[in-house]
Design brief:
7 helices, 26% strand, alpha/beta, globular, Rossmann fold, two-stranded parallel ribbon
Length: 206
């Protein structure tokens, strides 16, 4: 039996998950979500349980290198099937578009992150929700795709990428950039995630 971590509720959701749920649109929503690079689909199972149509996807050839994914799915009682799809190949997804697209903790692993971002925008009908580490938070020094190869901060100084490059890439759609915690220990460790929300129903303000 897994020991339950100090997360914020009884659904195994951490602070980052809750921020993603809060970012989903409510008004006249079809409650449809595609999760790209889902890992262990805790968030997907929660959304499914509260009435969303959820498609959790991951790149199975890479995922199969980490058997702990399947072990954790079983331990958490996850009933959803993870669909094989490659973020760099838009034709690998089951449908051409989804109301909402989530991609959490993925872009920092991909040398071709710009192509991935373009594909995510194309797959999104209404709202795209991204998370990835601020600066060197949650650093994994292993080579990609396991480790991190992209690092963003607020202004592109000190060798970092400027997070606002994604805002520019998302034009003409309105995009917000926030910083969030992922768990209580982030405060002590000065770790943060970016939460980037692209709203395709809102025009860019010029």
């Amino acid at each position: 039996m897994l020991e339950k971590p100090p997360f914020v509720n009884d659904h195994w959701l951490d602070i980052r998950h809750v921020s993603i749920v809060d970012a989903l649109p409510i008004y006249e929503s079809k409650k449809e979500v595609l999760n790209v690079g889902c890992g262990v689909p805790l968030l997907d199972q929660y959304l499914h349980n509260i009435g969303y149509t959820v498609t959790p996807t991951d790149f199975i050839p890479e995922r199969s290198k980490y058997p702990e994914f399947e072990e954790r799915m079983k331990a958490h009682g996850i009933t959803l099937k993870v669909v094989n799809a490659n973020i760099l190949d838009i034709d690998s997804f089951p449908k051409k578009s989804y109301e909402n697209v989530i991609c959490s903790e993925v872009l920092e692993h991909l040398p071709e992150y710009k192509k991935a971002f373009e594909n995510l925008l194309q797959l999104t009908e209404r709202r795209l929700i991204l998370t990835f580490p601020w600066a060197r938070s949650f650093m994994d020094a292993a080579p990609p795709p396991k480790g991190h190869c992209n690092f963003w901060n607020d202004d592109g100084t000190a060798g970092y990428k400027n997070v606002h490059e994604l805002v520019e890439m998302a034009k003409p759609y309105a995009t917000s950039v926030q910083k969030i915690r992922t768990k209580p220990t982030d405060i002590k460790l000065n770790q943060l995630d970016y939460l980037v929300i692209v709203d395709k129903e809102q025009a860019w303000n010029v």
